[in-house]
Amino acid sequence: MCLQTVRSISSTLHLRCNAESYIPDYYTVLGVSKGTDVKDIKVAYFRMAKKYHPDSNNTDHARFMFQLVAEAYEVRLILVSPLF
């Protein structure tokens, strides 16, 4: 993916972006607020994954967003879920 596309998406999602890296706000990516419980995170993930899935939306932006949404879901779920 070209750097221009990453910068465009990063400005929309309030990501800190430079030529090498970005740091996403996973709550913003999933469209939930901080302190959201696991159930609402799952609902938000499935909604966003359906919207950006490559089978239904075949653009570079959608492909990037699908990967970002999956990453956000994984990270937020690990941090919110009880370990035991």
In a nutshell, what does this entry contain?
With 84 residues, the protein is mainly alpha-helical.
CATH superfamily caption: DnaJ domain
Which structural class do the helices and strands define? mainly alpha
Spans with pLDDT under 50 lasting ≥5 residues? none
Quaternary structure: single chain
**Rounded radius of gyration (Å):** 13 Å
The coarse silhouette is globular
Specify the biggest β-sheet: 2 strands, antiparallel
Strand content: under 5%
* H/E series: HEEHHH
Protein architecture, described:
The chain is mainly alpha-helical. It has a single domain (3-80), classed as Helix Hairpins (Orthogonal Bundle). Helix content is 62%, strand content 5%. It has helices at residues 3-13, 26-30, 38-52, 60-80, and strands spanning 16-17, 22-23. It has a two-stranded antiparallel ribbon with strand order 1-2. A hairpin with a 4-residue loop joins strand 1 and strand 2. The longest helix has 21 residues, at 60-80. It is globular. The termini are far apart.
